[in-house]
Amino acid sequence: MQLEITGLRSGYGKVQILHGVDLTVPPREITAVLGPNGAGKSTLMKTIAGHLPVMAGEIRYRGNSLVGHTALSICKEGIGFVPQDHNVFPSLTVRDNLHASSLAFEGADERVAEVLRRFPILAERANQAASTLSGGERQTLAIALALVAGPDILILDEPTAGLAPIFVDRIVSWVRELAEEGMGVVWVVEQNPEKILAISETAYVIDAGRNSEILEARSLLAPGRLEEVLLQVQE
Q1: pLDDT (tens digit per residue) in 59-77
Q2: Residues in Cβ contact with 6 at an 8 Å cutoff, skipping those fewer than 6 apart
Q3: Domains of the chain: which residue ranges?
Q4: Which of 1, 53, 105, 212 suits a disulfide with 205, CB 3.0-4.6 Å?
């Protein structure tokens, strides 16, 4: 089942940021979302995940509307969210972070063990406080916290920002594996666009809270094409 967003309007309080965005996230595919700073990309992700209210429009998954659902309810529907910031519990150990995120789900111990098998670096750091991890390790933990709930759709809000190249490559590889296993992924792209577009199917360009273009992601890898598209939406 694909996640379908139509005519979505959202924002903060009375300030509307999204003005009717459409987005489709199919299973087994990575969908990229691009646009200039302030375009509404993070607002879109937070609204889908239930962290911001829907002012108008529709979010549907598995044939059900998710409008008005809590963030926990949306997570239980199978949609995981990795925000860009404040995405781990710094004072807790890696293992306790994972257990805290799995408490609302059956088979918590098995879920944590499965995630630690997928990310050996976290197994090695299981008893360390999250605050002591490197940036790449912490971002790996943030992704693991979403995966422990067993989502079918994963929302990533620029998970490679500021990371060393080795962790960028690892995260790109892990996310590609998740899509190959059947997960639908939506990835907000600000840094390392070439690596992410190379594994994505569709790219949505957002500008001023609206859809600007919907493109085949790999078409943006042509020399100068990505710069051309982003410059167009900034004019």
Answers
A1: 999 989 999 999 999 999 9
A2: 22, 57, 58, 60
A3: 1-78+152-167+183-235, 88-150
A4: 212
**Which H or E run includes 169?**
helix 165-180
| Average pLDDT of the segment spanning 82-96 | 95
Phi, psi at 57, each rounded to 5° = 100, -170
pTM of structure:
0.94
Residue 68 to residue 53: CA distance in whole angstroms: 7
Tell me how far apart the alpha carbons of residues 62 and 49 are, in angstroms, rounded to a whole number. Answer: 15
Query: What was the pLDDT predicted at 196?
Result: 96
**d(Cα 6, Cα 20) in Å, to the nearest integer?**
7
Task: Determine contact, residues 206/44, Cβ cutoff 8 Å.
Answer: yes
Query: Is the pLDDT confidence value at 234 over 80?
Result: no
Neighbour tally for 136: CB within 10 Å: 19
Which residue is it, tokens 């087994």? 28
Q: What is the pLDDT of residue 235?
A: 56
Using CA atoms, how far apart are residues 134 and 141, in angstroms rounded to an integer? 10
